[in-house]
Amino acid sequence: LDTVDPDFRIKHGIFFTDLTLSKFVMWLVKQHIPNLGKNYLVIDPACGSGNLVTNWRSPLELRHKVVSEIEPELLFAVEQRMKGDQWHNGKFTVVPKVSEGKGLNFLDKSAAEYLDVIKEYLAEKGQKPDKPIAFLCNPPYRNDDDQTAEGVEYSVHPSILSLTGNDTASERYCCFLAQMKLICEQAKENGIPDDSVLLLFTETSWLNRPI
Question: Can you give the pTM of this predicted structure?
Answer without folding.
Answer: 0.82
